Batch of 2 targets.
Target 1
Amino acid sequence: LLDALSDQAALAIERVMLAEDVDRAKLAAETERLRSALLTSISHDLRTPLASILGSATSLTRYGTALDEPARLELATTIQEEAERLNRFIANLLDMTRLESGAIRPRTGPVDLSEVVGSALERAGRILAGHRVEVDLAADLPMVDLDPVLFEQSLFNLLDNAAKYAPAGSQVTVRARRVPAGVEAQVMDEGDGIPPADVDRIFDKFYRVHAQDRQRAGTGLGLAICRGFVEAMGGSIVAGNRRDRSGAVFTLTLPAAADLPMPEETAP
Ligand code: ADP
């Protein structure tokens, strides 16, 4: 009986091992498929801006002298904007790699939110030039426990999206108020918003809601980086839609800096 049982056990183990091999082969094939999809996507994102830089630069060198000043300026502006787009894409790829390898170690400390909001808005100035920007920060905001560099980058990515996905002339709002968990900061716009089924998936790497988003400058990495950074600092971020009108809302909950001890508590 023992022999029979051990034969059966051996057979069962063999079957499991075979199934594991099949699973492993499937996993390897799936990894390979993802890797090649990723390469295609990255090559596309690098090539599109490069093609327009090359086109504009060629026009300038070939016909520059025959063109009038506004036409030359337009070509130079295209070169500048597309080079900035490439720069952002590469910065995003590096940020993603650093996040995934665990090389991001936030240097948190008490931060004045209004200062970081100010510097993120300044950095996004040119991108947001066609929008109206409203800043609404509560007067009683406590200091927040953040890494200012990572937080500015996270805000910048949200502002960049608001500019991209909401029409020119519409309003982009940055708001912050005190909540029991710390501080709640929001970036909202007046675009089409996000389909409810996608509110969480948009934080996945390379996920983009619409096929036509491919035509818009972007990498599908901005929100993944944003969530990675915010969570690394002990905060959270969720996406949703406005109730009062059409538009997306991104809500960040950030830990308040620990209250400074009262003088009597530190006394011996
Ligand atoms: P990217 O903007 O480069 O595509 P993101 O990770 O920043 O990548 O965003 C992922 C997707 O989420 C976008 O492609 C877009 O479909 C959607 N999205 C992000 N922000 C907004 C927004 N403010 N309004 C509507 N859709 C948005």
Target 2
Amino acid sequence: RKVKGPVGPLAGRKVLITAGPTHEPIDPVRYIANRSSGKQGYAIAAAAAAAGAEVTLVSGPVSLADPDGVTVVRVESAREMLTAVEAALPADVAIMAAAVADWRMAEDAAQKIKKDGSGKPPTLQFAENPDILATLGHHAALRPRLLVGFAAETQNVLDNAASKLTRKNADWIVANDVSPATGIMGGDRNTVHLVSRDGVEDWPDLAKGEVATRLVERIAFALGARDA
Ligand code: CTP
Ligand code: CA
């Protein structure tokens, strides 16, 4: 039997995706985390694999099964996520869909923090986590040719997304409004705006799988155009 290589619009392309939250330990029994189901990032990984790409998905803790045909690297913290992302380079495309915790504890607590009986809660000291998207955006040697970030905002969605595009040196930002009134967080649908240096494209309300398929189509088109 003749073995065929991958076929599809992303055949031969390496795609790196982050998804899910990160967990930052407070002590051995507690952590801080962002709200993220991982569904959108996993859907993008599945769509990219279906389009023939060689996909690495670096995933924070989520309760989702590995998508078919995708190499999944599971991590907990932002710093572990950055290490795994850098280990997966080079990539043609990187899509940073993870909801990375902005802060971790400034110091590791080796022991469980105990109530001291005074009734006064402890004060936690935070340190800022590395920005994985910005690290890739400013990578001298290994910046992916197409770098896509996400921006989940509760206000000034498009302005905030545009400033993230510039600050992190991304090519596109997929922006969405996650204010509680939208009820979007954790659901199966998403209403996004594709923000690039050329302007903003408003996409209709779509299932997360449809957002993924459209994004993958746009990526294949953009890479094709860049090859020509
Ligand atoms: N991101 C990242 N590493 C971080 C923080 C964010 O890679 N430490 C990525 C996210 O995966 C996403 C994009 O940056 O693709 C925007 O994340 P967001 O949290 O909206 O941006 P921040 O720069 O953290 O700004 P904010 O203060 O609004 O949280
Ligand atoms: Ca953030």
